[in-house]
Amino acid sequence: MDNKELIARRVAQELKDGDVVNLGIGLPTQVVNYLPTDVHITLQSENGFLGLGPKTVDHPNIVNAGGQPCGIIAGGATFDSAFSFVLIRGGHVDACVLGGLEVDQDANLANWMVPGKMVPGMGGAMDLVTGAKKVIIAMEHCTKNGEAKILRHCTLPLTAKGKVNMIVTELAVFEFRNGQLYLIEMANGVDLTTIKSKTQAEFLIAEKLKTMSIGHEE
Predict the structure, then answer these.
(1) Which pLDDT band holds residue 217 (cuts at 50, 70, 90)?
(2) End-to-end Cα distance, the chain
(3) Mean pLDDT, the chain, as a whole number?
(4) How confident is the model at residue 166 (pLDDT cuts 50, 70, 90)?
(5) What is the widest separation between alpha-carbon atoms in the chain?
(6) Which partner from 46, 52, 56, 156 sits 20 to 30 angstroms from 190, CA to CA?
(7) Percent over 90 (pLDDT), the chain
(8) d(CA 179, CA 43)
(9) Exposed/middle/buried for 78, CB within 10 Å: 0-12, 13-18, 19+?
(10) DSSP assignment of 124-153, as one string?
(11) Among the ranges given (18-27, 59-68, 180-189, 201-210), the one the predictor scored with the smallest mean pLDDT
(12) Which residues have a catalytic role annotated?
């Protein structure tokens, strides 16, 4: 499997039955494909949906916050963007899964812009990272140039400070505990030396370091 599928599979193991979840554009949208059979979540989208589902013929004009065609499940609801952000800011989203450009050892996130490059806007990321009960960053461990993305200090404009709970990459899973970054899982076949060489941030190693769980493969 490719890196993105591996990451999505691992993130799916973090979501609990009944959770209200917001999935960012790109890699995070794949998470729903790998949920355990006994886990059913409700997808929230900042453009005004609760209960997003697969694209259907009956609803050809519904799109998620990233502009991707989708559907809405039976019992789902639509509302204006203002109410959608009330849900987010009010702490009613159990988890959000977002991509990341950089995360640092102080749980800071940069994921909305690269100076000098055109971006559509910050979207709902700043609200989601501060409003969701659990913030999971799903991203590849390094840039396309091989540079670390898990840093001592973010260099790009921040999305939020001190709000990340977990980082999932194709190499490892990190968790923030009491202000400290811990390595809690390593991917199968990956050693600690490799992770250290590709991670700039300082981190502690969990007492019970595990092999990354990716659920059942078809």
Answers:
(1) low
(2) 11
(3) 92
(4) very high
(5) 52
(6) 156
(7) 78
(8) 29
(9) middle
(10) THHHHHHHSSEEEEE--SB-TTS-BSEESS
(11) 59-68
(12) 46
Reference 101, options 86, 88, 113; nearest CA is 113
Which residues of 60-171 form beta strands (DSSP E)?
71-78, 95-98, 102-104, 109-110, 134-138, 150-151, 166-168
Q: CA–CA separation, 210 vs 183, rounded Å? A: 9
* pLDDT confidence bin for 12, thresholds 50/70/90: very high
**Total Cβ atoms within 10 A of residue 98:** 27
Token pair 């794949």 in the structure block, residue: 30
Q: Confirm if 131 and 88 have CB atoms less than 8 A apart.
A: yes
Look up residue 17 and give its two tokens. Answer: 């039955």
Find all residues with CB under 8 Å of 207, minimum gap 6, and list them: none
